[in-house]
Amino acid sequence: MTSTSHRFSRRDFLKLGAAGSLLSWVPVSRLAAAASPMQYRLTAVKAGVQLAQSPFPETEVWTFNRESPGPLLRLRQGEPARIAVKNELEQPLTVHWHGLRIVNNMDGVPQLTQPPIDPGQEFVYEYTPPDAGTFWYHSHVNTAEQIGRGLYGPLIVEEREPYAVDREALWVLDDWRLDNEAQIVGDFDRQRDLARAGRLGNTVTVNSRTPRSFDVRAGERVRLRLLNAANARIFSLRFQGHRPVVIARDGQPLEPYAPGTAITIGPAQRLDLLLDMTRQPGERFAVLDTQYPQSPFKLMDIVYGEQPALRTSMPEAVPSLPANPIPEPDLSDPQLQPVVLAGGDLGRLQNAILGDKELDITRLYLLGKMWAINGRVSSGYTDIPLFTVERGRTVLLDFQNDTAWPHPMHLHGHHFKVVEHSSDSTVVGQWLDTVMLGPEERAKVAFVADNPGGWLFHCHILGHVRSGMMAVIRVG
Ligand code: C2O
Ligand code: CU
After folding, report:
1. Nearest CA to ligand 1 atom 1
2. What is the pLDDT of residue 35?
3. Which of 7, 129, 6 is nearest to 76 (CA)?
């Protein structure tokens, strides 16, 4: 049997409040014979989704299976998956499995790892995810527009043994730039966005809906998975009246900790939280986003139902998730790679190399290219590699953000361990696939280059990718 029958519908997202509703569709996959791969079918197609509140009309978005976020894919750690992708849009596309350390020819980067899937065509992805955790998938062609128009979805790789909570929930965060008719504004090349903080929208959604409430029961323990699918927006969440504990980041388990301040999640990042519902039946608490102090807003209300508490005292301990099998970097003799991010408005970049020419910044701006990594502006997925590393060697990336803007830097095919960070000590020691570098910040991250092939390495502010902040590395 296949698992295509239990795709995650938008209605399921809304139902997350009812205890057990999210778990009710999990066991279906458990019935599949262990030897047969998990199977899904994704069709990229335009569809209307009610993003803004009525009386606004539905927004035309680009979807997988007529939903954005696309259906939740649930895979199992160490077990093969087979995902057929059909393209019914007018542009070519690919699907990248963000954060999965899988074989290179399934990584979904056009030209670099596969030919794009042309309109009307189909491509079958087959791979075995080595790590359990919270991941996502998205198109990797014309990403600022395709992801910006909705072409992405969540992906969960289940742990071999279920982690003990009463309930799981998933919040996919996005923001959209909508016009007065609630349609997506198509200015994906607006210079001010490309050269600054990226494209911020005017409508924030959680699981593609607004307004939002999160219905809970007193005494529940909830595993809340957060995914930031926005092109550029960073979220800093404050859970009023609650004390969330972080149990994983970018899919990778960590030593559970309760952040003292807001919980920040940059574009493409994921966070798994353990949220104990310690308040009383009938109470209500806001979840605020305070990332942009000039425009704080309420993301969500946590709404306690009237049922009596599920238990009177919460379990004290927050168990760790089992670690994934990532090789430990050898820091005694790493290949040291400086990574200098430069460009953008208010930056110091004077010239950079694009293709085989050195151009001055004025000329680069005219070409819509404002960002460079180590003095080179990306011209596409077939650039010569930024560096090559022998398979099995530890690489130490020494980031220097020489710009006035934040950059969530993502590496394909690997997770890296943060060794140093100039302003965020909480990430030191964590395994990430996307590390946030604020203006003028520095960080060092290390990984064992154990996955052969050409891998993309880029900022996940998608306007920055479009305007040059991308490179290829080669593990040989
Ligand atoms: Cu989310 Cu190049 O990827
Ligand atoms: Cu960037």
Report:
1. 98
2. 53
3. 129
The order of strands in the sheet holding 81-87 is 59-64, 38-49, 81-87, 122-127
Q: Are residues 180 and 82 in the same domain?
A: no
Residue 350 shares a structural domain with residue 423: yes
Cα 410 to averaged position of ligand 1 atoms, centre (Å): 7
Rg over alpha carbons for the chain, rounded to the nearest Å, is: 21
Atom from ligand 1 closest to the CA of residue 99: 1
Q: How far is the CA of 151 from the centre of ligand 2 (A)?
A: 20
Same domain, 399 and 443: yes
The overall longest dimension of the chain from CA atoms, in Å, is 69
The residue from 139, 158, 177 where one domain ends is 158
Q: Do residue 149 and residue 179 come from a single domain?
A: no
Average pLDDT for 138-159: 97
Q: What is the mean pLDDT of the chain?
A: 91
What are the tens digits of pLDDT across the range 375-402? 999 988 988 899 999 999 999 999 999 9
pLDDT in tens, 211-248: 789 999 999 999 999 999 999 999 999 999 999 999 99
Residue for token pair 């519908």: 9
Question: Which DSSP category does 53 fall into?
Answer: P
- Over residues 188-209, mean pLDDT: 94
Q: CA 453, 458, 460, 466: dihedral to nearest 10 degrees?
A: -110
**pTM, to two decimals:** 0.91
Q: Name the closest-CA residue to atom 3, ligand 1.
A: 98
Q: Is residue 23 classed as helix, strand or coil in its secondary structure?
A: helix
284-314 in b/e form (b: 16+ CB < 10 A) is ebebbbebeeeeeeebbebebbeeebbeeee
Residues 146 and 196 in one domain: no
Nearby residues of 89 by Cβ (< 8 Å), 6 or more positions away: 44, 45, 46, 62, 119
User: How many CA within 13 A on the CB side of residue 219?
Assistant: 9
Query: Which CATH number belongs to the domain containing residue 46 in this structure?
Result: 2.60.40.420
Percent of the chain with pLDDT over 90: 86
